[in-house]
Structure formats: C-alpha cells, structure tokens
Design brief:
Radius of gyration: 17 Å
Shape: flat
Main location: membrane
Strand content: under 5%
Low-confidence stretches: none
Order of helices and strands: HHHHH
Largest sheet: none
Family: Belongs to the OB-RGRP/VPS55 family.
Helix content: over 70%
Transmembrane segments: 7-29, 74-95, 102-122
Keywords: Membrane, Transmembrane, Transmembrane helix
Organism: Cryomyces minteri
Structural class: mainly alpha
Number of strands: 0
C-alpha cells in the first residue's frame, strides 16, 4: 500500500487532535498532571523498535531473536497500559477531574494510534 500525501495529512490531523485533547485536559482545569501521558505514549514505541533491531534475524535462522521481540512488545504494552492507568489513578486520588481523565486517555490513545499507524503505513519492504 503506497502511503501518500493524504495519509500524511490524515495522520497529522489525528495526532493534532490527540495533542489538543491532552493539552485541553490540563489547561481547562489548570492542573498539568495529565501531561505525563504524553511522555508515556511517545516513549511507548521505542522498546518495540529497539528490540526488533536487536533481534538480528538472519536468512538462515528464522526463529532467532523471538524472545527479544516479545520482550519489546511486553515493554510497549506496559507503557501503553501505564498511559491509561496514570490518568485513572490521578482521578481516583482526586488530583485531577474525571472529565480531564477521559480527555487525557482519549488524547493519549489517539497519539499512540497515530504513531503505530505511521509505522505501519511507512514501513519499508525488505527485499532479499
């Protein structure tokens, strides 16, 4: 599937909405703790990327490095769940309001979904 200009525009629009929701969840209630979600969703794809690079798949050994890739996916899952759990925990402890929690979670999921979609659309095909 060829990713063109329309794909880039659509992904940037969704990313902008995600950042807008996270920033508004902080600014509307004058409490900037929900901005912690941005860091977790930006860092979340890094273990997946690093472990895929470190696995070092060869032509001769198809199953080599499977544990490293699984560990990267596990760390990515921990960070994504943490990105949802942080606003829920802050709302439960009454440090932020519940609407701010909802906006922060939805915005964070949009940010992470955009990062994953960008990786899927612009992944290079490997030719041997």
């Amino acid at each position: 599937m060829a990713a063109g200009l329309k794909t880039i525009i659509a992904l940037s629009f969704v990313l902008a909405i995600g950042f807008l929701l996270v920033i508004l969840s902080s600014a509307l209630w004058k409490n900037y703790l929900p901005l912690l979600v941005v860091a977790t969703y930006i860092i979340a794809p890094l273990p997946n990327w690093a472990c895929a690079r470190a696995s070092g798949n060869d032509d001769f050994m198809d199953g080599a490095g499977g544990g490293v890739v699984d560990f990267g996916r596990f760390l990515t899952g921990v960070l994504v769940v943490g990105g949802v759990a942080i606003p829920a925990l802050l709302a439960h402890c009454a440090l932020i309001q519940y609407p701010a929690m909802a906006m922060s979670i939805v915005g964070g999921l949009l940010i992470y979904g955009t990062i994953i979609s960008f990786g899927m659309f612009f992944q290079e095909e490997q030719e041997f």
